[in-house]
Specification:
Elements: E1 18-22, E2 25-28, E3 33-36, H1 39-42, H2 51-61, H3 76-85, E4 91-95, H4 98-115, E5 123-127, H5 136-142, H6 145-148, E6 158-161, H7 166-172, E7 177-182, E8 185-186, E9 192-193, H8 196-209, E10 212-216, E11 240-243, E12 254-258, H9 279-292, H10 297-318, E13 323-329, E14 332-337, H11 341-350, E15 353-354, E16 356-358, E17 362-365, H12 373-395
Parallel strand pairs: 3-15, 5-6, 5-7, 7-10, 10-11
Antiparallel strand pairs: 1-2, 2-3, 4-12, 8-9, 11-12, 13-14, 14-17, 16-17
Helix pairs in contact: 2-9, 3-9, 10-12, 11-12
Amino acid sequence: MGKENHTFDVYAPPPLEFVRGEGARLYDGKGDEYLDCTAGIAVNSLGHGHPHLVEALKGAADGIWHLSNLFAIPGQASLAGRLCENTFADRVFFTNSGAEAIECAIKAARRYHYAKGNPERTKIITFEGAFHGRTIATIAAGGNPKYTEGFGPRSPGFVHLPLGDDDALKAAIDDETAAILVEPIQGEGGIREVAMHDLNRYRELCDEHGILLVFDEIQTGVARTGRLFAHQWSDIEPDIMAIAKGIGAGFPVGACLATEDAASGMVLGTHGSTFGGNPLAMAVGNAVLDVVLEDGFMDSVNEKARSFRQILAEMVDTFPDLLADVRGKGLLMGMQCKVPNTDVVNKMRDHKLLVVGGGSNVIRILPPLVISDDEIAMVKERMMSALGELQAEKDK
């Protein structure tokens, strides 16, 4: 720190620089150890410095770094095949980020109807509290004024509805509707889980009206909730799904998955990416699946989630003046705060525990999926100390 900064002033990081990571731990330049329960906002699914990922990336770096998609890219067929084998999908388009995956999903949904002879079907129904990315289209899809203000007219074609309002949803579907776009659990929106009956209702309405169901599983995917994807806790499947974050475990990778029918409009020349699906990304994505698809891996995530939920429930019981409730699924967890969530985030950082804020005055707890039982016990200890100190300050 202290060097002149020439980057855009769009971030406000604390005066802290990490120089090394191992598993669920980060180390600053002074050698101080922090427990990382942010995981790069649910990105570092396998923690820091995972040996299998490091080996995969080093091996790929000795080969071809970039081809664009002018030629077949090593690893794409394998990763696409494995994603399809373990999901509803038949087709995959690789991107560099979650926002690009959502952009592809939007285009695929609209192009589907165009190819079916219904070009007027362009409207996408989304829900209040959603976060779908930072591009011009995806901030319009999310609809949050915090992200749209100052960027000119919103990209048209998005209808924003209250989450869980079935009457409003039925009324909003018309002859111009193309799709419903939803996060099974709103991460940025405050770890708000969509009720199972609502997901089932979305599927029913899409089938009834001939529109597409699109899931944003960017934050919820790749074993984060204890299943490969969060919707797999239910009996329903989407037509299109956007993923990113955990599939790259820190390397920029995203993908748009679709059924054969939903992808039918995306023909030669309708979409593309210079960097999407590059050889390095494919090596890492395949290495991530090597680990998360191992027998017992997701069972271990669910066991750790149970331990965490007990800890968080204890925190709420112990500090009722600070915390209101526990929410989330798997290792995508949160606690709603009764004091500003920034106060809680900062105090926990003072105690060398890293968590991240979210909507609805929530703090998100998003540890690497490989966090150990001993580290979970350390999280509890540091959380208790931080909240105890914050309570003492509040009581003065």
